[in-house]
Amino acid sequence: MRPVVATPRRRTSKRSLVALAVLAIQVGLLVLALNLPAFQVRAVSLTGTHLLARDDLLRSAAIPRQSIFTLDSQAVRHRLESLPWVDSASVSETLPASVHISVVERTPQLRLHRGGRSWLVADDGGLMALQPSAEARWSSVPLLLDNRFGVAPPLSAALIQILHGAAQRFPTVLGCTVVAFQWDQSGVLSIWASSGWRAVLGHADTADGVTAVPAQLAALTALRDQLHFAAPTFGYVDLENPSAPAVGGKPGLPADVSALSPG
Fold this sequence. Notes:
Elements: H1 10-35, E1 43-47, H2 54-61, H3 73-81, E2 86-94, E3 98-105, E4 110-114, E5 117-121, E6 127-130, E7 143-146, H4 157-174, E8 178-183, E9 189-193, E10 198-202, H5 207-221, E11 236-238, E12 246-248, H6 255-260
Parallel strand pairs: 1-3, 4-7, 7-8, 10-11
Antiparallel strand pairs: 2-3, 4-5, 5-6, 8-9, 9-10, 11-12
Helix pairs in contact: 4-5
């Protein structure tokens, strides 16, 4: 029998040392990259804002001045998307030290005027204070004039969607535009048309009242072959009982509606 000869371990030891050296270099480069000033976040850009203030968004984003390699972009995105008027956000990094934020804001559905103050209304009922100097900028957003007594309850998302949709359909369906939606002091909701007549909907500040509005609007549409909505000889269409609409009065916008309406 041939004698057993032990395999030299020198080559294996050298390979292990080389691997450890390479690993040590990689770890050293990583530590260096994490601490080099060149890779510390220095610039943050922001796009997509029309309503929200840049400084407020950056404050909410709370991007730390740390290495761009350790930035938690998902956490930044979640902080931004938790804001009431931010629909979505994206965060991206660009080497060596730049971060870009892009936000999609909620679209204002209504322009609420109540007690001498104005707000923009989001589709979920969220409110944003509107300064008088900015009224003209948002004049194309349908106006909701709230003259109800006392503290008004929050607007329901369902009613906001219905009113916004009605304002969009009026020109093609009835040949005139919506000047304003108005709650009078007793809580009756009406739609004022640009040609000077109004559709009376009733108390749409309850769940049952909101549910009834689509049928009321359908009853109004059904009258377009009988009434000339663009050049009316009437002042109102009462739709509180949609199965038996009542028509009467003389056309003409009230002063408070005209004062807050564009043009």
